[in-house]
């Protein structure tokens, strides 16, 4: 049975593994993303591979920065003693989120699945940015608990790509739905799940805290 104290360490390890996996797959194993680009049908815009790949690398790179930066602030202890570092690292996280959103905004018109997927990615970008800005507003008002909760909600969106691909694998390879349809369902399914999971976690934590009293 996994001890409660070991859960943050396990979560951190899984995040590090995923970051390394994303970097290796996108920058070393499949640097030209041939397979992924081959599924981009139904788009009104013609993909320019050279430009798209550069933007994609920026997107992946800063997505990894956001995940790592957020992880450091969540798992670090003695916040009061490291307040300056926490703040600076928070700025790194916010900048990374902005750059991920901007690069995603560029790639949205070329999204696999055409216009409906493009709308989904733009919606996702707006939600993530709105949540992140809310977290900043909360800490500026010295509402620490609310800030932490909104940061949990924001950080959840660092796992968007992971969830989309998990949905796609299950729907396409296990159930047999076409790749494009699976990807589109995965996109919208991920948005719903990423909004719901933090609220479930908050309820679980609240229940445990009541039980501990």
TrEMBL record:
InterPro entries: DUF2306_membrane (IPR018750)
Alphabetic keyword roster: Membrane, Transmembrane, Transmembrane helix
Originating organism: Paenibacillus albus
Protein name (record): DUF2306 domain-containing protein
Pfam families: DUF2306 (PF10067)
Keyword Membrane assigned: yes
Transmembrane segments: 7-29, 58-76, 88-107, 119-139, 151-175, 181-202
């Amino acid at each position: 049975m996994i001890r409660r104290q070991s859960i943050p360490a396990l979560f951190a390890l899984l995040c590090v593994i995923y970051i390394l996996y994303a970097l290796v797959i996108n920058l070393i194993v499949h640097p030209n993303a041939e397979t992924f680009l081959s599924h981009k049908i139904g788009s009104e815009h013609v993909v320019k591979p050279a430009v798209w790949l550069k933007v994609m690398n920026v997107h992946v790179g800063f997505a990894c920065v956001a995940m790592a930066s957020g992880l450091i602030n969540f798992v670090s202890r003695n916040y009061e003693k490291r307040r300056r570092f926490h703040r600076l690292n928070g700025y790194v996280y916010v900048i990374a989120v902005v750059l991920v959103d901007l690069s995603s905004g560029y790639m949205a018109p070329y999204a696999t699945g055409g216009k409906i997927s493009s709308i989904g990615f733009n919606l996702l970008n707006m939600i993530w940015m709105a949540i992140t800005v809310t977290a900043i507003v909360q800490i500026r008002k010295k509402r620490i608990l609310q800030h932490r909760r909104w940061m949990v909600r924001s950080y959840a969106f660092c796992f968007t790509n992971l969830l989309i691909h998990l949905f796609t694998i299950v729907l396409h390879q296990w159930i047999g739905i076409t790749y494009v349809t699976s990807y589109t369902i995965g996109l919208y399914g991920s948005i719903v799940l990423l909004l719901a999971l933090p609220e479930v976690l908050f309820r679980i934590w609240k229940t445990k805290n009541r039980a501990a009293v």
